[in-house]
Design goal:
Strand order of the largest sheet: 4-5-3-6-9-11-10
Helix content: 40-55%
Strand content: 15-25%
Shape: elongated
Length: 295
Amino acid sequence: WRHISESISRLVMGWDEEEASRVVSNLLRDSIELDRFREYWAACTKWDVTELLPRVTTPTLITGYKGHPVFGEENARQIAGVMPDCRVELIEGATSQERGLKHNLAVGRFLRLGMPRPEPQQLSEQATGGLRAILFTDLVGHTEMMQRLGDERGRELLREHERITRKLIREHDGNEVKTDGDSFMISFASVTSAVECAIALQRALAAHNATGAEPLVVRVGLNAGEPIEEDGDLFGSTVILAARIAAKAEAGEILVANAVRELSTGKGFLFADRGDFAAKGFEEPVRLYEVRWRD
C-alpha cells in the first residue's frame, strides 16, 4: 500500500516533487485502506459523464497542466470540445507550488472576467474557499488623536471615518468582515474591486483633509488567496499576511502582495516595486508593491 500510494502521488504531483508527493501519499494512506481504495478505483473506471457535458450551459473554466500524464492538455481539450460555454487555461510550472499559484490566478481571471459581480448582500452568505481579496485599513495616529480631541470629539471623527469607509465598501461590492472603529477588515470577490476601493478610500480621505477638517489618514494592505471562514469571520495565512502588509505600509500608502499585482494585470493600475518583505511567521519573503493612487 505504501508503494502504491507513493507511486500515485508521484504521478499526480510530479516525479521530482519528493516532499509534496510524500505529504499526499501519507494523506492517502491515512484516509483509506488498500482494499477500499481498490473498490474506489474500480468504481472510477466506470464513470462516464460525456453525454451530460453538452448540457452544461454555465460558463466553465477547464484547466490542464502542460505535459502532465493525468491532467494534461489532451483531456482538457476533449472536455472543452463538447461543452457549449467553456474556456481552457493550460498551465505550466516546474513545481506543484508554481502550478498551484498559476492555477489560482487563472481562476481569479475567469471569475473576474467571465462571471457577473455579486451583489453586496450576497457576499456575506457565499461560501469561502475560493479566491478572495482581503483588505485591511488602519487609521494612523488614532490613540494620539483621541487623547488630543477627547472622547466626544474623537468619536465624532471616528464616525466620519466609518461613514466614508462603509460608503466605499458598498460602492465596490465589498463585505465588511469586522471593524474596531479605527481599522477595517474587508473582503472582496474581485481583486480589481478591492484595489479600486483602496484607491477610492485614499482619495476620499485626501479630499476630506483638503477641507481643513481634522485629518484622517489611513494605511492600507491588500492580499489575495483562499481564506477560511468560520462564524462569519475569515482566518488563515491569506488574512494574516494582509494584516502584516497593512502594518508595513506608511501613512497614506496602499501596499499589495505580488499575487494582487498579477491578478490586476491590464486593469490600468500603477504599481511601484517595494522589494521583498520578510513577514513574521512566513518562511518565504513576499514581494510588495505600492499602488500609485495619486498619479
